[in-house]
Amino acid sequence: MATKDQLIDLLIHDLTGPLSIVSTSVSNLINKEDKYGPYNEYQKDVFKRILRNTDKAKALLQEIIEVYRSEEGLFRKEQFLIADILKDALMDAVEVVAPAVGEELARVCDDASFSDVLAKNGIFIDISGKYGLAPFNHDQKKIRQILRNLISNALKYRKEMMKLNISGDVDLMVSVEDDGQGIPKEKQNYIFKRFFNIKEKKGGPEGLGFGLSCVKSLVETMRGEISLKSGEGAGSCFTVRIPPL
Ligand SMILES: Nc1ncnc2c1ncn2[C@@H]1O[C@H](COP(=O)(O)OP(=O)(O)O)[C@@H](O)[C@H]1O
Ligand SMILES: [Mg+2]
Hints:
The protein is of the alpha+beta class. It has 2 domains: 4-71; 78-242, 2-Layer Sandwich (Heat Shock Protein 90). It has 8 helices and 7 strands; from the N terminus they run αααβαααββαββαββ. The protein has helices spanning 4-31, 33-36, 41-71, 82-97, 99-107, 111-120, 140-157, 211-221; strands at residues 78-80, 123-127, 136-138, 162-167, 172-178, 225-230, 236-242. It has a 5-stranded mixed beta sheet. A two-stranded antiparallel ribbon has the order 1-3. The protein starts with a helix and ends with a strand. The model is unreliable at 201-206 (pLDDT under 50). It binds adenosine-5'-diphosphate and magnesium ion. Magnesium ion is lined by residues 149, 152-153, 207, 211.
């Protein structure tokens, strides 16, 4: 049985390396068609699929590494506006779960039209409390990772709407609410376990069951808390409390 340090080393060196090589090689093939091509449409699609999935694997691996690292409690202390990080996390999630909305958002250039596009797509943001104006002290990458995971689940499982709420005057409070099928009471303890995924009906969204366990472990290392209010058919609302660093 490998120790945790050995596992992290294995992830970093033995998986990141080969994945990067695959991804760079395919990028080269795609970008240098004049040298290696010409390609037919089928070949182009296959190259793009390889690249997309290698990048997905790289991103997941990066998250796993980040989580194992942060379980040692190593945080970088930074000052940032939570609204900025929330927006970044939302864009990350939207690009993966709802790419059409992502494209629409990338085209707008002022805050008002940004909110309009969000509202049109059933996404609502409410920021109140101290951190509406004052910067929050913490590791921004980790906060972004927590938000991104909760937001992508809400986007994945909602019917029509998702609400993001930021509040708090000492500890930061974030809630992510959706109007989806909800999580039955008896499953609520399990969803935070690593690699747990409620069996979906055929055609439903599928995932790895890694996200929420990462969020929980990050939040707990931050001496914060995560809670869930949900029920069968009642939507879900995840709330996270994080003390400043
Ligand atoms: N907002 C939500 N609404 C309904 N079910 C959810 C929601 N968030 C998470 N779940 C359930 O919890 C499981 C674990 O979530 P997560 O750890 O993020 O893994 P993944 O998103 O990779 O499936 C999901 O597979 C899903 O069944
Ligand atoms: Mg998830």
